[in-house]
Amino acid sequence: MEASKLPGFLARRAVKAVLVVFAIIVCNFLLVHAAPGDPASVIAGQSGVADAAFMEQLRKQFGLDQPLHTQLWIYLKSVAQLDLGFSHRQQQPVAKLVLERLPATLLLTGAAFAFAIAGGVTLGALAARRVGTWADSLITVLALTFYATPLFWVGLMLVLVFSVWLEWLPSFGMGTVGVELHGFAFALDLAKHLLLPALTLGLFYLAVYCRLTRATMLEVADQDFVKTARAKGVPEGRILRAHVLRNALLPVITFAGIQAGQLVGGAILVETVFAWPGIGRLAFEALLARDYPVLLGVFFCTGVMVVLFNLVTDLLYAVIDPRVEVAG
Amino acid sequence: MTLLTVENLTVALPQGGDRPHAVEGISLSISAGEILCVVGESGSGKSITANAVMGLLPRGLPVTSGAIGFEGKDVLALSPEAMRRLRGSRMAMIFQEPMTALNPLMRVGDQIAEALRVHGAGADAAKRVPELLAAVNLPDPKAIARSHPFRLSGGQRQRVMIAMALALEPTLLIADEPTTALDVTTQMQILRLIREIQSRRGTGVMFITHDFGVVAEIADRVAVMQRGRIVEQGPAAEVLNHPQHPYTRALIAAVPHGAPDSRPQVTTAPVLDVKGVEKTYRRGGMFGARAVVRAVHDADFILRRGETLGLVGESGSGKSTLARCVVKLVEPETGTIAYHGTDLRPLSRNAWKPFRQRIQMIFQDPYASLNPRRKVGEAIAEGPITHGVARGKALAKARELLALVQLDPGAMERYPHEFSGGQRQRIGIARALAMEPELLIADEPVSALDVSVQAQVLALLADIRERLGLTMLFITHDLRVAAQVCDRVAVMQRGAIVEQGPTAEVFSAPQHPYTRQLLDSIPGRGWTPPAV
Amino acid sequence: MRDFWRRFRRNKGAVVGLLILVLVILLAATAPWLFPGSPWDMAAAPFMPPGEMDMLLGSDSLGRDVAAGIAHGARISLLVGAVSTVAALCIGVSLGAIAGYLGGVADDAVMRFTEFFQTIPSFVLAILLVAIFTPSIISVVFAIAIVSWPPVARVVRAEFLSLRSREFVQAAEVLGKTRLAIVLGDILPNALSPIIVLSSLMVASAILLESALSFLGLGDPNLMTWGFLIGAGRSVIRLAWWMSVFPGLAIFLTVLALNLVGEGLSDALNPRLARQRGGAA
Questions:
Q1: Nearest Cβ partner of C255 from A148, A215, A306?
Q2: How far B442 CA lies from chain C's nearest CA (Å)?
Q3: Could you give the ipTM of this predicted complex?
Q4: CATH number, domain B305-330+344-520
Q5: CATH superfamily label, B1-90+171-178+188-255
Q6: What is the per-residue DSSP string for B255-297?
Q7: Does pTM surpass 0.90?
Q8: Residue pLDDT, tens place only, A273-319
């Protein structure tokens, strides 16, 4: 798209993103009120040891004795000030808990996503190029296998093989306990800990992107403009790169945007398996303790992550596809 | 000097096809500076022949025998790499669908430059690309070169394709139905462009078409194909005016004769009186830029009992929208649509129901206009049943109607996919007639059909109209068809009727400049198909 | 119908998938006879490796039979997969049909709603829903249905949108048929193929989702499930690998089978697409 149209396009997408975040907040609010029992006990953490005085204070703070729309307004105001509530269990504000854990999750999901998209597109392109050969069959079968395997089970199996039997890689945490490392040694230690979780989370999405890339490349290869390129004598390798792959990437980007939410969801499972100290692990701990404010905070935070990621994919799409503003 | 010789070429079809060979024993030749038209109906093997010459046959269609010689080289013996080097530099090709033939993500200029670059001539691309775009008469070549394809019209894209094909001045140009997807005025411009460039550069052209009008317009020589074989070949004037082979004669006989006969003026009472109808489309959402298209405005007309009125115009002229307004498939914002004095426009879905029996419609695409999951008998009887006719009676009526449209009653129990395009169109006609309508709206009823089938369906429509005394609104983009079918015509352009009157008058003395332009664009206007 | 079978059979993977699926269904159906009694009961000493003490697939930390757990778990997995898919189909098909057939404002509203559900992290939402409404088979089915209808709505809308402008639907309008008759008689039957293919894939992902929820301890506490078995084996994986390996294999095989069947259905229902996808050509 032309550079002059970009700000307007971005502004439209930003408005949309804000609306989605708003909807997530409303969703959270409704969940609190849909839960069986007193909303105050949900806000306090249901099985928490909240005393009567604390509950009373909550009722006042969230205006629970006031009409619903007033309550929503109070809730919105507090979220807008990044006040996500208080975890009675951990005796800390939810926002602080989530923000502390966020970098670890960003590292894990970022690494897994990069691995999935690079590996998936490469394998998919390879399979499409060799369609009908043994290489294609092998890639297709592999992709289907990873597609059909539960994430958390892949994680456990990797732990079993690489940590328990082979003892090559650590099975839990983000760093070796009890050692203070710096510089390169620290990075290497982190990478060792990251490898298995990132692989676990990435394999499923690698399969998704691989299948999608293969299918769209075959579809694009049938289109008229590919025949035009052939008719003007463009070599096959260049046809594949400049014409087929570029067009086939568009649905992959769209899908990556849609899938971002699932990636974050998968992180909960992977962080649980590998005791990775991110917000997924936080969610699991909160789940065991029925610490609802933290769970709601995690939902809000992951929602915002996904919305931001979608903004990036929208931008990327707009850069690649000149037709975007027409489609709106 | 002979540029291309094809001798005894045979290309196999995969097993299970309707015939063993896609083309069989094809022999033809093209000299420099000559245009050979390869004519035939769909499935006759024209495109296969062209793709064989370019070395672009899909893997499932191998050449089994024969030889192709190009500039003294044996094309079939060349390595894929040597063949690639020929393509785009010595021989080039343009295709039917300009809308999809260009890479949507690449600037037009870059796509032309790519053609130069892959043959090692990319150095002066920056200078050559605008020159080439100017040579195909595109305005502001520099701006066009920077545009992406979606910003260009179909005609502009086809010009870009031609510029790209001619970038390295090939000696042979293969044009596979290059004007079929274009409007008639654009078609004429592209035909003239090809003619002009070809004669200036002495290029040999293989021009594939199904339209004898186009043949008359552009061909030096003609090869007629039927089911994979060339049945007749010769100089254009010879083949067009004195066809020898029965198939050629049948094809030419089926071409509608452009000249309308003078018909008595219809003065019966009006059936339909359309006044002040306007339909505007707004695109774009809450935030997006809005585009406003005035699809129909200033399009008043009166249709009298027993009369056939033709709505003619190019794509996007609003003729289909106007027709759909009459049957409430499209809801106009203003105006009156008076049917025997009752304004249909404000009526609700329910209030409309009785009129559904009086006004029926025939559609364009025989492959899309029948529900694939409903048996033919059911499809025809469905309308009357909806309006309360007993099932048994409706089915009996359907059987009669099949006979009327010259189909076997056994068709009742079969599904649409078992029929050819022409047969399906007959089923569509029978479905409309089952309602015993007074007014029939025919939306391009023959434009998706091959010319010989087209003639049969037109004859059927004429016969039914006569027998049942139908009033008809006939939408078409084909002026030759309009001339043959309509008592009066209304010419539409950008949503408005710019001229209307008795067909013979409009054709012989057009008043509006657009009508004149349309008439001048009828391909092969100077050729009157011989009576054979 | 015979045509359909012929095309389905041509896809070898689909036949294998169907075979596996039939076996899993048989296992689920015969579980009460193969493994009488409750799968929660102690049947052997704890941590017996496969093959010992009559434990085909070993026993767990409380001496429960892993094989019995898998057989009984198959019932729950298939049930949850099927029921939640039906529920999601009901939501998705109705919303998609409304959006696609009516178009305009209704379409806009429904699609924004669908997009929202597709954007938010659905697994996190599912966890929240089950946690807040307390884990039970009802809340699990409900949560899975809530997060898995958006793709259905999108597919159905796209189909309806393209079918609505097809000439045979316009012909039905011109014949004076009612809206309901057109939607049920002309549009829906022609939109069924993609819905059928999609639903086999949805059962697969519902089974995956259910296992993930149970793995996190959000399954119905009274029902034995595959995800629960793996979750129980997680902390003792160094001690008893069989506790997590075999239930995982059961999930894998079932989900794989459903995916293969889905591909076979797709080939059989859209012969044109199957050819496009290359393969032999």
A1: A148
A2: 12
A3: 0.83
A4: 3.40.50.300
A5: P-loop containing nucleotide triphosphate hydrolases (3.40.50.300)
A6: SPPSSPPP-PPP-S-EEEEEEEEEEEEEE--SSSPPEEEEEE-
A7: no
A8: 888 888 888 888 888 877 888 888 888 888 888 888 888 888 888 88
